[in-house]
Design a protein that fits this description.
rod-shaped
């Protein structure tokens, strides 16, 4: 596990153990406050990375969203595991007991972490529920199969999940998924056209005959 937060040194832990109840102006609290402020800064950067605009590139297909949110969920879980350590809890507990002014900032960032964890979990769960449809949109898939079978099923699944979750419509996330699906469909069509360009119209006519049963 990568350590994202600055570690609590042994001397600080020793001071906290020796001082059961410290005031806001005591030396041990004055040492703890800069440490917690550094944690807050690190967490803000992590949250910015999680919800930053790193998702759009013309070549990216929908499967990239699964990789992206799985990676982000691992990152925030890593962060939360560190915050659950005895050392971190001891430092935060000391600031709460001493009524440090830093605690107000900490409580605000703690709410943000919880919200980010819930959103990451929700989006990852959603993406996993439609993974089989996204995996069917391979570059060598047939455009007709995509249009007739895969896309309707995908849209139904997305509609069902969106109706029970408060995260997917936020900040245009569903639009982002559809954009990436469109990117993949463009790749599929390009591959289909370039696969046998000379026979394109022959194949197209045969496909229409089969479709309309002429």
């Amino acid at each position: 596990m990568i350590c994202l937060l600055k570690r609590v040194d042994a001397e600080m832990i020793s001071q906290l153990k020796q001082t059961a109840r410290s005031t806001a102006d005591s030396p041990v609290i004055r040492n703890c406050e800069p440490l917690v402020l550094s944690w807050i800064s690190t967490i803000e950067n992590v949250l910015q990375d999680i919800f930053g605009e790193d998702s759009m590139h013309p070549s990216l297909g929908p499967l990239s969203e699964i990789d992206r949110w799985t990676r982000k969920q691992r990152l925030i879980n890593n962060l939360l595991e560190q915050l659950k350590s005895k050392e971190c809890k001891a430092v935060i507990g000391a600031l709460i007991t001493s009524k440090s002014k830093v605690i107000r900032k900490w409580k605000a960032i703690d709410v943000s972490i919880t919200e980010a964890q819930n959103e990451c979990r929700d989006k990852t769960k959603f993406l996993e529920s439609i993974r089989r449809y996204l995996e069917s949109l391979t570059e060598d898939a047939h455009p007709q199969n995509c249009a007739v079978n895969i896309l309707p099923a995908l849209c139904d699944a997305m509609r069902t999940v969106e109706s029970v979750s408060r995260y997917y419509a936020r900040q245009g996330y569903l639009g982002l998924i559809f954009t990436k699906v469109t990117n993949q469909l463009v790749k599929i069509c390009k591959h289909y056209i370039s696969d046998d360009l000379k026979q394109l119209w022959t194949k197209f006519i045969e496909m229409l005959k089969n479709f309309f049963i002429l």
